[in-house]
Design a protein that fits this description.
binds magnesium ion, alpha/beta, binds adenosine-5'-triphosphate, VC0802-like, 9-stranded mixed beta sheet, Rossmann fold, 15 strands, 6-stranded mixed beta sheet
C-alpha cells in the first residue's frame, strides 16, 4: 500500500489547446512548493488529475497547508494506492475509518477499468454494507458527512476519504506578469492576492518617504511580501525612495491635486520598472470612492500617464469584504500595524475629490517629469522572496 495525494483542478479552465500548458504549470508549482517538505516528492498527471507520490513520512497537516496555497487546485485528498481487490480495499477503508468523525456516509466508486468484474453500483453496495457493519452509521447519498471514494484503475485502485478544498483560481504563471503597488495598508495585498489567484506572476513596488518618515512601511511591505510568497513565490519587492519627489510636488503644485500627482508619478515610475521585467499591467488596491483619491475622476486622471493597463481588482469591493479577505489570506494582522504612509506624509488639508487629466497636466508643467522619474528609478532597491524565505 502506498500513500499518495490526489489533486483535482478546475475543468473549466482546461478547455481546448491551453490544457497542457495549464496542467504543466500546476504540476511545476506543486513540485516547487512540495519539494520544500521532502526533496524526493514526485508530481505527475493522471487521467485529468494530478498524482503526488513519495509523500509518506511527511506530516499530513504540513502537506495540506502547502497544497491549500497552490492556486489552480480545486480540491485534494490523501489517498491510498492498492491492488484492485475488494478485500484489500475493505481492509484499507477499515483502517482509516477510526480517524473520521461522521454520522452518515456515501461510497462513490468509479470504474475507469471496465474489465473489473463488478460495476460501480455493485461496488458501492458491497463497500456500503461493509462500512455499515463496521460502524453502524447510516448511508446518506445526498448530503453525507463523509464520502468514501474508490477509483478502480487498470493496475491498481485509489481509495480516499473526504476532500480538502483547494485555493481555486488558476496556476500562478499562466496569466502573464504584473507589478503590484504595495502600500503596507490592508487593500493592496488583497488586490495582489486576487491577481495571483487569476494566474498572474507578481512583483511588487513600494514607495516610501524614508528618511523623512520612519522605515516602518518598508518593514511591513517585506513582511506582507513574505506572506504572499507562500501563495505565489518567488517574488521581487522593489523599494522606491519617494520623499524628494513628493517635496518637489508640494513646493511647486497646487495642494488639492497633490495626492493625484503622487499617484501619477507612482504610475510612471512603476511603468518604467515594468519595462525591464516584461510586466504587462500594474495592480492597485483601489476601491471606488473609498477615499478622496479613489473617486472615478481621480482614478481616471492616473490612467493616461502610462501605456500599461492599471488593474484594480477591488474596485467594486466594500472595505468590510476586503478586511475579511485579508484575514483569510493572512495579511490583516501585518497590515493593521501602524506605519507612516508616504501619502499621508505631506498630505494636503483639502484633497480634491475630482480632477481631470488636463488639470493635472497643467499642474505638472512646472516639473521636469522625465528627470524626476529617472532619479527615482536609479535609486530602486530590490529584494527577492521565495517560498523558502516565506516559510522560515
Ligand atoms: P491600501 O490599503 O492598499 O494602502 P488605501 O485604501 O489606503 O489602500 P490609498 O492609500 O489611497 O488607499 O492607495 C491606493 C492604492 O495605491 C493602494 O492600494 C496601492 O496599490 C497604491 N499605493 C498607495 N500608496 C502606496 C505606496 N506607498 N507604495 C505603493 N503603492 C501605493
Ligand atoms: Mg494606504
Amino acid at each position: 500500500m502506498k500513500e499518495v495525494l490526489l489533486i483535482h483542478y478546475h475543468e473549466i479552465a482546461l478547455k481546448g489547446k491551453n490544457r497542457p500548458f495549464f496542467e504543466k504549470k500546476l504540476c511545476d508549482n506543486l513540485r516547487s512548493a512540495l519539494r520544500l517538505l521532502k526533496s524526493s516528492i514526485q508530481v505527475r498527471r493522471l487521467y485529468g488529475r494530478i498524482l503526488v507520490e513519495e509523500v509518506d513520512g511527511v506530516d499530513r497537516d504540513e502537506v495540506r497547508r502547502v497544497v491549500e496555497r497552490v492556486f489552480g487546485v480545486s480540491n485534494f485528498s490523501h489517498a491510498w494506492e492498492i491492488p484492485s481487490d475488494l478485500d484489500r480495499i475493505e481492509e484499507v477503508i477499515g483502517e482509516r475509518l477510526p480517524e473520521q468523525e461522521f454520522d452518515s456516509f456515501a461510497i462513490r466508486a468509479r470504474r475507469a477499468y471496465k474489465q473489473f468484474p463488478l460495476k460501480s453500483q455493485q461496488i458501492n453496495e458491497r463497500l456500503g454494507g461493509f462500512v455499515c457493519e463496521q460502524t453502524g452509521k447510516r448511508v446518506d447519498l445526498t448530503t453525507p458527512d463523509l464520502t468514501i471514494h474508490v477509483e478502480i484503475l487498470a493496475e491498481r485502485s485509489l481509495v480516499y476519504l473526504g476532500k480538502h478544498t483547494g485555493a481555486g483560481g488558476l496556476p500562478v504563471g499562466v496569466s502573464g506578469r504584473m507589478l503590484a503597488l504595495l502600500s503596507g495598508g490592508i487593500d493592496s495585498p488583497v488586490a495582489a492576492w486576487r491577481m495571483l489567484r487569476r494566474g498572474a506572476r507578481i512583483s511588487f513596488v513600494h514607495f516610501h518617504s524614508y528618511p523623512f518618515t520612519s522605515a516602518d512601511s518598508q518593514e511591513k511591505v517585506l513582511e506582507l511580501a513574505g506572506v504572499l510568497a507562500q501563495w505565489g513565490g518567488p517574488l521581487e519587492v522593489m523599494m522606491v525612495a519617494f520623499g524628494d519627489l513628493q517635496r518637489e510636488i508640494v513646493a511647486r503644485t497646487p495642494g488639492p491635486l497633490r495626492v493625484i500627482l503622487y499617484r501619477r508619478f507612482m504610475a510612471r515610475i512603476a511603468a518604467r520598472l515594468a519595462l525591464k521585467k516584461k510586466v504587462e499591467a500594474l495592480v492597485t488596491g483601489e476601491s471606488l470612492a473609498q477615499v478622496a483619491s479613489q473617486t472615478l475622476s481621480n482614478m481616471a486622471s492616473v490612467d493616461p500617464v502610462i501605456d500599461l493597463p492599471i488593474l484594480r481588482p477591488l474596485v467594486g469591493f466594500d472595505k468590510q469584504e476586503i478586511i475579511e479577505e485579508s484575514k483569510r489570506i493572512g495579511t490583516f494582522d501585518i497590515s493593521i500595524q501602524p506605519h507612516d504612509d508616504c501619502c499621508s506624509y505631506l498630505m494636503p488639508p483639502n484633497p480634491a475629490t475630482s480632477s481631470s487629466h488636463r488639470d493635472c497636466q497643467r499642474a505638472e508643467e512646472v516639473l521636469d517629469i522625465d528627470s524626476l522619474v529617472e532619479e527615482a528609478v536609479d535609486r530602486v532597491e530590490s529584494r527577492v522572496f521565495d517560498q523558502v524565505c516565506a516559510r522560515s
